[in-house]
Design the sequence.
């Protein structure tokens, strides 16, 4: 066999076996050697020219995975054509698609040939250079033991060090052995546990969970939530009833511990699990990292318009990042991505916070991160924080339901602004001009919250909005009050055009330094993510109204000055954060 080595292609120039040694598998042995050589040396394809009239030889190559790429006329001689045949290597597959790989001690036990995942041995995963070279593998660790320093332990350890996504990871393996961690993490679904197990008799109960599902249909939701908290392919949750149902412990299951009676069910769950994952699909281009953008197609006033989302996607593609829009139904797909960008209105009590929390737990870069959502959604937290760090705000008092006396209103100076602590987009905010209006508004607000914000009313023609990213100014806008109203938004206006005020976008250099410095300081007290800081400048003084996570970025508004550069900066932030996280992972496992 004669091989010619090109940059990406290994060409079989000739392959021949003496007649007396033919029909003994020598040719297949040589071809297998060429394939192993190509994979080991990271060639993308193997090519060969075959006599187009030699049907038997063409079929032999097809049997070994080669496909006809093109017909070369008069290749050998006049009227003697050749087929150019090619075989794509494992390296090509790795660089063009994310592959599901199941690592097992005995792959022959995985008797599910139709599942969209490749089962390999531990030895192959550890020693084959393709698995140590590329990060675009999704590793499912189904080894027969996960004990410390066992093969199962090292598979998860190596996968993490190689930058590959692995289930279960070593953090999960460790957490399962720590009851206090299990109890702490599961506390957030305690009500669901009580509801789901309410009809179970006895003091103990066990639930087997296979790829996020369970045979007990009445516990389907519970199984799904447990999988989101404790991500492992196969595990058993043991519950104990002591006044209320609690998790006693969690046991990781291996294939040899699954009852034979459950194998058909396991097959069904695995088929569903792997068929719905995006990482099974071939990408048309190679991308280094993947970003999920959470959107709500039904939201009337989303933080980014479709055109702005398109610009972000184009900027990401230019940087070599893949972007996919996901919705609330895709929470089980978060672990497919390297980062999450939330582009729908956030709230602590809705699924956007759950997405943020889950993504962070999965190790994704998240904007908005859960801490930013918590801190920005509550004006009481911001009031305390800004007061502590001597940031000027409108004079503010926190009214507490059980201690507030309405007679106190007689000593207050009107007009006042009353706010629900988690108000946003001018909703949950009321301006009151007298005691009667204040009494009514406070009574209504106390029905929703035990504490509310009471601020002095500072009039200004417009509010400053400074976009801050990575503790640096990103954009600057003046948001003018809506027509005939004291707020930027007037949701009660009958005219659609009067519901929001006008805007003016400025160069950062044209913003008063006092406004910029105050905005950056206020944002830094929340975190280092993406924020919109609202400020007023009254009589030469700069007041922080609030810091918002999930700020508006609309095409033709916030990007009017920077244009595409604004989206480039956003993408650059994601890219740098992912790179830093990956480097930290590599260092921590060296």
Sequence:
């Amino acid at each position: 066999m004669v091989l010619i080595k090109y940059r990406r292609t290994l060409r079989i120039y000739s392959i021949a076996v003496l007649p007396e040694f033919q029909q003994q598998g020598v040719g297949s042995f040589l071809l297998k050697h060429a394939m192993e050589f190509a994979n080991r040396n990271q060639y993308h394809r193997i090519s060969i020219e075959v006599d187009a009239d030699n049907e038997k030889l063409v079929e032999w190559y097809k049997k070994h995975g080669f496909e006809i790429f093109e017909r070369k006329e008069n290749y050998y001689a006049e009227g003697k054509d050749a087929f150019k045949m090619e075989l794509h290597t494992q390296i090509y597959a790795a660089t063009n698609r994310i592959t599901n790989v199941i690592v097992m001690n005995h792959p022959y036990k995985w008797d599910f040939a139709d599942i969209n995942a490749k089962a390999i041995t531990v030895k192959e995963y550890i020693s084959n250079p393709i698995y140590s070279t590329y990060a675009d593998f999704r590793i499912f660790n189904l080894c027969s033991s996960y004990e410390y320093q066992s093969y199962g332990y090292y598979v998860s350890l190596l996968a993490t060090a190689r930058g590959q996504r692995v289930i279960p990871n070593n953090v999960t393996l460790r957490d399962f052995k720590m009851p206090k961690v299990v109890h702490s993490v599961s506390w957030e679904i305690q009500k669901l546990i009580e509801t789901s197990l309410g009809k179970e008799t006895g003091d103990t109960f066990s639930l087997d969970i296979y790829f996020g599902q369970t045979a007990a249909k009445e516990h389907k939701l519970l199984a799904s939530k447990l999988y989101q908290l404790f991500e492992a392919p196969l595990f058993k949750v043991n519950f104990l009833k002591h006044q209320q149902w609690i998790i006693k412990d969690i046991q990781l299951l291996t294939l040899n511990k699954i009852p034979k009676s459950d194998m058909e069910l396991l097959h069904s769950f695995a088929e569903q699990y792997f068929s719905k994952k995006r990482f099974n699909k071939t990408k048309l281009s190679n991308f280094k990292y993947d970003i999920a953008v959470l959107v709500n197609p039904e939201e009337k006033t989303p933080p980014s318009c479709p055109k702005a989302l398109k610009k972000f996607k184009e900027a990401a593609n230019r940087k070599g990042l893949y972007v996919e829009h996901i919705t609330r139904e895709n929470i089980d797909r978060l672990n497919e991505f390297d980062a999450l960008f939330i582009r729908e209105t956030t709230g602590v009590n809705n699924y956007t916070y759950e997405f943020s929390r889950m993504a962070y737990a999965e190790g994704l870069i998240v904007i908005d991160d859960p801490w930013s959502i918590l801190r920005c959604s509550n004006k009481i937290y911001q009031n305390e924080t800004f007061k502590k760090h001597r940031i000027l705000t409108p004079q503010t008092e926190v009214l507490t339901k059980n201690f507030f006396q309405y007679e106190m209103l007689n000593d207050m100076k009107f007009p006042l602004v009353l706010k629900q602590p988690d108000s946003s987009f001018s909703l949950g905010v009321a301006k009151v001009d007298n005691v009667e209006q204040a009494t009514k508004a406070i009574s209504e607000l106390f029905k929703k919250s035990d504490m509310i914000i009471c601020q002095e009313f500072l009039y200004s023609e417009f509010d400053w909005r400074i976009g801050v990213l990575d503790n640096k100014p990103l954009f600057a806008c003046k948001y003018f009050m809506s027509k005939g109203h004291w707020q930027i938004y007037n949701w009660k206006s009958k005219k659609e055009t009067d519901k929001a005020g006008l805007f003016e976008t400025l160069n950062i250099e044209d913003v008063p330094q006092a406004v910029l410095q105050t905005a950056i300081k206020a944002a830094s007290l929340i975190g280092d993510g993406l924020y919109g800081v609202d400020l007023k400048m009254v009589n030469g003084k700069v007041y922080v109204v609030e810091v918002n996570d999930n700020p508006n970025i609309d095409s033709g508004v916030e990007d009017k000055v920077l244009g595409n550069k604004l989206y480039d900066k956003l993408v650059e932030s994601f890219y740098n954060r992912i790179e830093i996280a990956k480097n930290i992972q590599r260092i921590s496992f060296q």
Q: What stands out?
A: Confidence is low (pLDDT under 50) at residues 277-285, 586-590. The first strand starts at residue 2 and ends at 5. Residues 29 and 144 are 32 Å apart (CA to CA). DSSP finds 18 helices and 25 strands in the chain.
